């Protein structure tokens, strides 16, 4: 029996390499996540739906259960709340075009949107005079949106109300 030392050394090197799977943040659920404006410089990018594999595994049962609740409760026409997300994202983009003509001051912001199980999460930085109430009301009018969550700030220098995206090594 001969041992190929090159293969053994390669295997040992691969096993000894540090893995960053825990730090590898990805949008594992393919939830719509997109930036909608960029007027305010140095606004920290949110983590959005990017999670580590461990976080994804921890949340997977809850995600399945929560996604099916609206169907079981008779509040949804589709069998899973996540089935609406791409359609909501498209409708949101159209609503933003409408807002650009009817409420152009909304663009005085740096914002990201995540759509998750019929919920819309708006994160980022806004100008102190930003028309927040009118902007959020317009997003609530997007068809099939169940809830709009505001995680914006007019004072990013004091910190932001959301988890930040950590770029890998």
Please provide a written account of the structure.
- The protein has 169 residues and is an alpha+beta fold.
- The chain has a domain at 30-50 and 82-158: Histidine-containing Protein, Chain: A, CATH 3.30.1340.30.
- It contains 4 helices and 4 strands.
- It has a 4-stranded mixed beta sheet with strand order 1-2-3-4, with helices on one face.
- Helix 4 links the parallel strand 3 and strand 4 (147-153).
- Mean pLDDT is 86; it is low at 1-22.
Could you give the topology of this structure?
Blueprint: H1 5-16, E1 33-38, H2 53-72, H3 85-102, E2 109-116, E3 119-126, H4 132-140, E4 147-153
Parallel strand pairs: 3-4
Antiparallel strand pairs: 1-2, 2-3
- Secondary structure: number of strands: 4
Shape: globular
Question: Helical percent range?
Answer: 25-40%
Widest sheet, order of strands? 1-2-3-4
* Average of per-residue pLDDT values: 86
Q: Which structural class do the helices and strands define?
A: alpha+beta
Which spans of ≥5 residues are poorly predicted at pLDDT below 50? 1-22
Largest sheet: 4 strands, mixed
CATH class of the domain at 30-50 and 82-158: Alpha Beta
